[in-house]
Design a protein that fits this description.
Layout (H helix, E strand, L loop, with lengths): L10 E6 L4 H12 L3 E7 L8 H4 L9 E2 L2 H8 L3 E4 L3 H13 L3 E4 L6 H14 L2 E4 L5 H13 L5 E8 L9 H11 L22 E3 L2 E7 L5 E9 L2 E9 L6 H10 L5 E4 L7
Parallel strand pairs: 1-2, 1-4, 2-3, 4-5, 5-6, 6-12, 7-9
Antiparallel strand pairs: 7-10, 8-9, 10-11
Helix pairs in contact: 4-5, 6-7
Length: 273
């Protein structure tokens, strides 16, 4: 098990994508937790603003930077929390690991090959890391409950709802849920074998015999429903997120638990017993 390097036991955290909507919540969470210390705040559109002022908590002495490599080298953080975009996340993760900084990544879009490569880099450096499509504890519990239900009710469909500006479909949470369900049921092609889609895509995306439906509407934040059907009954497992602050207890837990791991973990559910 890795031990904290700080003699005072405080975990130093760098935040990438700090001025984004999720990044601001992470900065605020770190500043408000006495067990954590903000080491660096990085954003490509850096304005040299004090990170504490940016999130409404007053000056903290950490100015926004637009150079992640330099920020990591100069601040020496234990953990990098990254909520950027798939275009940059893989490079940021690799850069952090190479500098001995544990990555906690909330960006989706990593391929299995990339995850395997990054895991090897973590093990070489003898540090832990985490890539998680969702940090909501409630959403992880939804996945765990769904994985159990799939053992007994294999007919299932997933409906996920997000705002109209979301870039990927289905969501990373829906894909992760589908993977967990598929691990607990045999592939079963659902629906009438002779069914025809009058409008292409009406039945949703196909995964391991079941369907995933992505709804994109203004006014929606993030919801997901997993619907199981059997003769004479249905079971619906639903999780609703209403604001980004709801993800912060999970991010906080991840920052602390990643200090005790070696290797890259994919999925926050592995951090919840």
């Amino acid at each position: 098990m890795e031990q904290l390097k700080n003699t005072d036991g405080i975990i130093k955290v760098a935040v990438s994508g700090a001025s984004g909507r999720m990044g601001r919540e992470v900065v605020r969470m770190v500043l408000e937790d006495p067990a954590l210390r903000l080491a660096a705040a990085v954003d490509r559109s850096s304005s040299q603003e004090d990170a504490g002022v940016m999130v409404g908590l007053g000056e903290c002495g950490i100015l926004l930077s637009n150079d992640l490599n330099r920020a990591l080298a100069e601040s020496g953080p234990d953990v990098l929390v990254d909520f950027t975009v798939p275009k940059y996340a893989a490079a940021h993760t690799r850069l952090a690991i190479e500098q001995g900084v544990r990555p906690v990544i909330g960006t989706t879009g990593f391929t299995p090959e990339e995850i395997e490569e990054l895991d090897k880099l973590c093990r070489k450096q003898e540090i832990g890391g985490l890539i998680a499509p969702n940090f909501s504890i409630g959403a992880i519990l939804m996945m765990k409950f769904a994985s159990q239900a799939a053992k007994y009710m294999p007919h299932v469909e997933i409906i996920e709802y997000h705002g109209e500006q979301k870039l990927d479909a289905p969501s990373g949470t829906a894909l992760k849920t589908a993977e967990i369900i598929a691990a607990n049921r045999q592939e079963l092609r659902q629906g009438n074998p002779a069914e025809e889609e009058v409008i292409e895509g009406s039945r949703g995306g196909y995964y391991n015999g079941f369907r995933i439906h992505s709804v994109r509407l203004p006014g929606v934040f993030a919801q997901q429903e997993v619907v199981f059907g059997d003769y004479g009954q249905t079971l619906k497992i639903r999780h609703d997120s209403y604001e980004r602050a709801g993800y912060m207890p999970g991010v906080n837990m991840a920052v602390k638990k990643v200090m005790t791991y070696t290797g890259l973990v994919y999925g926050f559910e592995h951090f919840i017993d």
